[in-house]
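Chapter summary example: a protein plus MTE.
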Amino acid sequence: MNIIHRRGWDLRESAAAPEAVFLNRRAFVAGAASVGAAALSPDLAMAQRVTDLPDPTADLYPAKRNEKYALDRPITPAEVNAAYNNFYEFGSSKAIARAAQALKLRPWTVKLDGMVEQPREIGFDDLVRQMPLEERLYRLRCVEAWSMAVPWSGFPLARLVALAKPLSSAKYVRFETFLDSSVASGQRQTWYPWPYAEGVTIAEATNELAFVVTGAYGKPLPKQHGAPLRLALPWKYGFKSIKSIVRVNFTDQRPKSFWESLQPAEYGFWANVNPAVAHPRWSQATEEDIATKERRPTQLFNGYGEYVAHLYKGLEGERLYA
Ligand code: MTE
């Protein structure tokens, strides 16, 4: 593969540094050059101030936790999670948090269209206020073999599907991320098939686990996690959990996702987590916790088989796990 086309997840782990490590390195370099460590502070303080602008939906958080979705591991600390992200719109490293602060969240409109009774657009603030918000503790397993555990807030994707009123002929839901290269420098890299897109079947979208995320750690969703709304599909590899959604399209054609368009041999439509099915270039048997660095065995459907295994009965001939 051409080096220019390398993605973050092609990097060896040692080459992908979380932002905290990156900042420490910068501090070290600055110190070595006799520039005081204080030189970093204004930069960091500004990023912090931008992040802290009042959010008109802040009163909705923390949402009440739904205890049904329990974890088998500790929650990843918010600050670790907030500095280790995949959001290619803002760059291909994990340290995109600062660049992502350029994202403008208001106004934010979501288009519901395609095979629906009546196409419509809805403002994010209207949408979130008419949905039943709750908090769920979910695991996220990235296809790169790392994992985290997050208290997401949001509402069932089934509620968004119901709001859209799809026709019975619709078989799939396709999601699209914003497109604005003036704020997302990654979108100036024209070899990527922007905008980022993902898709699931209607049966997957209406499964109780499929979740529209609008908050994390008891607050509105940080930009680097895909504000103002993203998906959490915890039984699938993380790339299916599309961020910063602007369009939800109902169709009878199987959607082709961003990664599938780029590399169909490696990334398919279903992408369900399975430790027994290796990625063409690495094993999926284990995963590294991004906070503790502990390695643990990966579970089939990321441990959510009791909720979703039935969705794939009769589909054994398909490439369900890549
Ligand atoms: N959505 C968009 N629009 N752009 C992306 O680059 N990366 C995906 C997914 N959603 C991505 C995206 C991948 S590969 C992963 S693992 C998760 O977001 C990471 O979510 P996090 O940064 O909140 O941990």
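Key point: Residues 85-89, 140, 142, 177, 196, 225-226, 238-239, 241-244 surround MTE (CB under 6 Å).
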